[in-house]
């Protein structure tokens, strides 16, 4: 009787372990699917790089003046730089304000968080030239000019 009880407990333990590992495997598969969807989205963005990508732009706050960017350079609000979540550092892009058709060429020197709303953060000088410095955000089109890594 005792050995049958032990076998029953062992069987239950094995079943529970298998169920637990399947749950872990399912979460890993979900992460792989999410990563593939993200790469598909980035590929679609790169495919439309010739005519540009529409989105929302904002600009750096004044408190970031002098802080190091991801590229290692210090942020200067008077230079034409930007932060983007996916474009390679050193890439030059043309940003066109869709509200007034002003445009400016900036260099990607920093990373910004992947957000739903804003997908590029511009320096204050770039925002001034685009005409939305006091407004905070604007709709823009980003056109990649080259991909020169720094």
TrEMBL record:
Record GO terms (molecular function): lytic endotransglycosylase activity
Record-annotated RlpA-like protein double-psi beta-barrel domain positions: 54-142
Top EC class, one word: lyase
InterPro entries, per database record: RlpA, RlpA-like_DPBB, RlpA-like_sf, RplA
E.C. numbers: 4.2.2.-
Protein name, UniProt field: Probable endolytic peptidoglycan transglycosylase RlpA
Alphabetic keyword roster: Cell wall biogenesis/degradation, Lipoprotein, Lyase, Signal
Signal peptide as annotated in the record: 1-30
Keyword Transmembrane helix: no
Stored SUPFAM superfamilies: Barwin-like endoglucanases
Similarity annotation: Belongs to the RlpA family.
Matches recorded under HAMAP family: RlpA (MF_02071)
Transmembrane segments: none
BP GO terms, sorted: cell wall organization; peptidoglycan metabolic process
Pfam families: DPBB_1
Positions in coiled-coil regions: none
The protein's role, per its UniProt record: Lytic transglycosylase with a strong preference for naked glycan strands that lack stem peptides.
């Amino acid at each position: 009787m005792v050995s049958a009880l032990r076998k029953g407990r062992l069987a239950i333990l094995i079943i529970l372990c298998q169920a637990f590992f399947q749950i872990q495997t399912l979460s890993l598969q979900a992460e792989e699917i999410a990563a593939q969807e993200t790469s598909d989205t980035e590929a679609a963005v790169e495919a439309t790089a010739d005519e540009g990508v529409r989105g929302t732009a904002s600009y750096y706050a004044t408190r970031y003046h002098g802080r190091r960017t991801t590229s290692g350079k210090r942020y200067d609000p008077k230079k034409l730089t930007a932060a983007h979540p996916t474009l390679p550092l050193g890439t030059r892009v043309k940003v066109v304000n869709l509200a007034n058709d002003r445009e400016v060429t900036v260099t990607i020197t920093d990373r910004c968080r992947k957000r739903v709303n804003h997908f590029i953060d511009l320096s204050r000088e770039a925002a001034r030239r685009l005409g939305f410095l006091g407004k905070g955000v604007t709709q823009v089109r980003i056109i990649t000019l080259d991909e020169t890594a720094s």
